[in-house]
UniProtKB/TrEMBL annotation:
Binding site for pyridoxal 5'-phosphate: 227, 264-267, 363
Ranges for domain Orn/DAP/Arg decarboxylase 2 N-terminal: 30-270
Pfam families on file: Orn_Arg_deC_N, Orn_DAP_Arg_deC
Residues the record lists as binding substrate: 267, 303, 307, 335, 363
Annotated protein name in UniProt: Diaminopimelate decarboxylase
Keywords: Amino-acid biosynthesis, Decarboxylase, Lyase, Lysine biosynthesis, Pyridoxal phosphate
Source domain of life: Bacteria
GO MF, any single term: diaminopimelate decarboxylase activity
InterPro entries: Ala_racemase/Decarboxylase_C, DAP_deCOOHase_LysA, De-COase2_C, De-COase2_CS, De-COase2_N, De-COase2_pyr-phos_BS, Orn/DAP/Arg_de-COase, PLP-binding_barrel
Cofactors, names only: pyridoxal 5'-phosphate
Gene (name only): lysA
Amino acid sequence: MFSDKDIAHFSNLETPFYYYDLELLQNTIKTCTNAANKYEFHVHYAMKANFNDKVINEIRQAGLGADCVSGGEVRKAIESGFENHKVVFAGVGKSDKEINYALDHNIFCFNVESLQELEVINELAAQKQKTAKVAIRINPNVDAHTHANITTGLDENKFGINSWDMLACAEILRKSANLEFIGIHFHIGSQITNLDVYKNLCVRVNEFASWFEDKGFKVGVLNVGGGLGIDYHKPDQQIPDFEAYFKIFNDFLDVKPYQEVHFELGRALVGQCASLISRVLYVKNGKKKNFVVLDAGMTELMRPALYQAYHQIENLSKKQEPATVKYDIVGPICESTDCFGKEVLLPETHRNDVFAIRSTGAYGEVMASHYNLREDIRSYTAQDF
Ligand SMILES: Cc1ncc(COP(=O)(O)O)c(C=O)c1O
Ligand SMILES: N[C@@H](CCCC[NH3+])C(=O)O
């Protein structure tokens, strides 16, 4: 995937850094919006996946909305030029300060995750003599069949309002003069690769939409969240099957003529557009194991340490040579979980070889930390060379 010219540029730069392929990002966004437009579906970008300025600029220019999960993300969306009426704010723990900021900026809606939060938003909106638009995030108890740490729509998860609280929720909505109910919201998890899961979600969305309408509420928005996964084993087959994904919702959701269907995609849009580029500091050949020590660690890419996530690892300096040696690929951080891959078969590796850790556009740069007093992580695009 990387040309010899790319690799020559990488070799001249201080590592580690994220390398973004903006052309691939543009193609991914275009494929997604073309597939969504076919059914008049609306896509908000889940900003938590990556808020690098260059990335969100591409997304904003393509006309997508922004799905935010903190006051900081709402501010970033507004300051980056996303139109207020395309900004949504979800999250189980919105502080008063964050709610006030979002109210001041007249965002499209709050995806509300508890009964108490509904009351607080009503109170804060009343103080400003405003009406807050709200969608109810419902926990549908649908298994996303993904890693347990990134599932969000089961009874044991903290997200959303449970079905048994819906009557109380309807009561609060009815008596809250400063809330305008606009619809219902779901998000069952991330890195979902079994699309059948979404059929189960559609069944639940249909049930809850009918429930609210039977109680006299107009459900204008069906927000089904995001979660579409990418293939971490095939970083070069880069654009997810958006056609198949949206078709499921078209086939299984009962959408009334006055209803809009909203999506919140993160990883599927940005996951494949970046690689973490790192240099080999040391190679340690032990009796039982060989270690490659990189200059990138879990502070630059936390996913393997946090979820034992797989990322393809390539030695770019030896790309013509056969893979003959198994290495554990580790970072410099003082944690034993600081490991990007175990027993990875690679060409014989040496100090200063340049490595790429692929498919790191989503939840890579944004989850970087300063633990061990690490420096800020750099990033480049092809246009920087
Ligand atoms: C509420 C909400 N919406 C959207 C997303 C985006 O998820 P993904 O990056 O898996 O598409 C997430 C993260 O899982 C989320 O929590
Ligand atoms: N950060 C996670 C996914 C969580 C998504 C946010 N709800 C990942 O890297 O896979």
